[in-house]
Specification:
homodimer, mainly alpha, Arc Repressor Mutant, subunit A, Tetracycline Repressor, domain 2, 2 domains, elongated
Amino acid sequence: MEQETRLPESQPASPGTLRPGGRTAKVRRAVLDATRDALAESGFHALNMDRIAAGAGVGKTTVYRRWGSPVGLVTDLLRDMADQSLPAADTGSLAGDLRANAELVRDTLTDARMGAVFRAVIAAGACDEECARALADFYRTRLAEWAPVVARGGARGEIPAGTDPVELLRAVSAPLYYRFTVTREELTAAVVERAVSAALAAARDGVFLRP
Amino acid sequence: MEQETRLPESQPASPGTLRPGGRTAKVRRAVLDATRDALAESGFHALNMDRIAAGAGVGKTTVYRRWGSPVGLVTDLLRDMADQSLPAADTGSLAGDLRANAELVRDTLTDARMGAVFRAVIAAGACDEECARALADFYRTRLAEWAPVVARGGARGEIPAGTDPVELLRAVSAPLYYRFTVTREELTAAVVERAVSAALAAARDGVFLRP
């Protein structure tokens, strides 16, 4: 079995290079699901390669050879989460799209399971530089996916032309993540609404214009 | 020596109950300094009671009896950091005061030593509920200390009467902490300036009015 799951290269394969239904893809899915479950249940510091292998029904040697360490598991999980993430909204107004974005962030962070996963990967990023880079990549991908929302709002004249899309999207997310990671305050509907209104007011005022 | 440093109660003493120059206060100072140094150097998960005792020049029994666990050390350090924090600015304008606040946050998080301490206590908050509560208390104290800045700005007519001071202050901090903990982007002078301008634009627009 170890032989069958061996990869041709020593680097973790990026998902695009694999046939989705192939054995390698199935092993990756099982291992990343087990990693996500373990992070949700016990956090980053309890992540154990042997238990992940057992949970995924995959040989230990495969997990060590392909992911190397708990850090390797977390960075590949973040890559997979970026690939699997939902497409950006298109509600017809910038306020509607930004509200959809903020609600998606809120729903994810307040979901018992996914909230625990995000808390664990953010803690991993605080403890390990490779995890920090993978976390930064994850958010760079997410922000880039939503950037067209802001461009469309600009084209409709809802905000000044030349508004930096990513800067506006960061302003929507920041109050939610600040409460989630730092002040540990509840992410209520009012928090979502204020995050959107505040970001839009600043955008209309020209605060996020490209320099 | 263990006898001399024993406290009359089993709970960690709050600093206000101790003579500042007394032996108990000196032991606390040495232990919290050693805790801060250890967090800056190796993070929360490497925090070791025996090494803290050795680093502080204090008997192990004292450290175990008084702080109980690494979590006890972190929560007492956060209490001490709240007590030691600098007073709020009073520059004569709300924009000036908020800029001073944002620069203080930026200077703290980008300082090699203090940035590492904050990263460690935020990671501790992600891993332990007692640390999370202590972290929330720390920010509650800090935000309350700066609230008069917003009240003065309201009295001078710089923002609408009825603006929630803490909501506005959170809006200034959020973009800085979001980059520090989540997206790991650099805290430049431009980031500080945009955080202040965006929060002020939203406040003037009435986004932070009390419901």
